[in-house]
Design a protein that fits this description.
By secondary structure, this protein is of the alpha/beta class. Helix content is 41%, strand content 22%. A six-stranded mixed beta sheet has the order 5-6-7-3-8-9, sandwiched between helices. Strands 2-1-4 form a three-stranded antiparallel beta sheet, covered by helices on one side.
Length: 309
């Protein structure tokens, strides 16, 4: 993003500079981004900053350690060289008031899902803090939270007990969970045999019926058949209409963020970029992505011209 964007008159509390990722190119899209940021600041007054907090994230850092593929010789004689660190979340800070619906947006690999998993206590941060203020937390995500060698039924009980519910309470809601999931006889099969759609149905159904205080939704609305998507979307709308439910939604469908959330937070390559009214933040993000696409198109054009020359 060019220097002009970095000079936008932005509130330091709710907007940060986007790290530069390429050559500087003036474009209409970049001007639209600056306008969208200004609009987000103007709309920020509707966000409830003084409400009772449900979730407090403070200076969060999360780093992955990965092993790079190497030759057998290097693996044996240079053991330390194959370890690579990747910082997925870089000092993110924000507070979510009780009853607020917040969308997390950003391109793939920005750290959104990692952040949700840390809130759900699946990942431990390297530094910083996560305070759920005594609330129960449930994560709806594909491939997360289930013991795959256990059946769907066993995972329902396990998930419920991890949320703090008694076995008796989970048993009283079991039939409702199974009915909502539409899994039928497959509820007794190991989760390892489930398709992504079936996994999504089970994950959503457990959260939809047991209803934790803080609900984390990671792209589960994008998986499954059309009818279940409609049912899930309607159920989620019903859940978030309850004033005591706090929801964080990760989705690459910007219409979902616009329709369900009153607030959005933009994360880019692990960095906090913007926090404000959902439509305004999504507008800014879309303008940025359009600018990036325009820069790549221009770069490809220049490369083609250079080859011809």
């Amino acid at each position: 993003m060019q220097d002009e964007l970095n000079k936008v008159n932005a509130s330091p509390e709710n907007t940060q500079e986007i790290p530069s990722e390429g050559a500087e190119n003036t474009s209409v899209a970049e001007e639209q981004l600056a306008e969208a940021i200004a609009e987000a600041e103007a709309e920020d007054s509707i966000i409830r900053r003084d409400a009772e907090p449900a979730l407090i994230i403070n200076d969060l850092h999360i780093t992955y350690r990965t092993i790079q593929a190497q030759t057998i010789f290097k693996t044996i004689f240079k053991r330390g060289s194959q370890i690579k660190k990747f910082e997925a979340v870089k000092g993110v800070t924000f507070t979510v008031p009780k009853g607020e619906i917040v969308g997390l947006i950003g391109k793939n690999g920005s750290g959104k899902s990692t952040l949700l998993k840390a809130i759900a206590n699946i990942f431990k941060p390297d530094s910083g803090s996560i305070d759920t203020c005594g609330h129960t937390v449930s994560l709806m995500a594909i491939g997360v939270g289930f013991q795959k060698d256990l059946s769907g039924k066993e995972n329902i009980y396990l998930s419920g007990m991890l949320l703090g519910y008694t076995k008796e309470y989970v048993a009283s809601r079991y039939d409702e969970i199974v009915e909502f999931s539409e899994l039928g006889e497959f509820i007794d099969a190991p989760v390892a045999t489930y398709s992504s759609g079936m996994y999504s149905k089970l994950a959503f159904s457990i959260t939809a019926v047991l209803e934790a205080d803080i609900i984390l939704v990671d792209e589960v609305l994008s998986v499954g058949d059309i009818n279940f998507k409609k049912k899930s979307f309607a159920r989620l709308q019903e859940m978030i209409s309850q004033e005591d439910k706090t929801v964080l939604i990760v989705s690459h469908n910007n219409d979902t963020i616009r329709n369900l959330c009153n607030r959005a937070i933009w994360i880019h390559n692990g960095n906090f970029i913007m926090d404000g009214e959902a439509n305004a933040v999504v507008d800014a993000y879309e303008a940025y992505m359009e600018a990036e696409a325009e820069k790549k198109k221009l770069a490809r054009k220049k490369e083609a011209e250079a080859i011809k020359a």
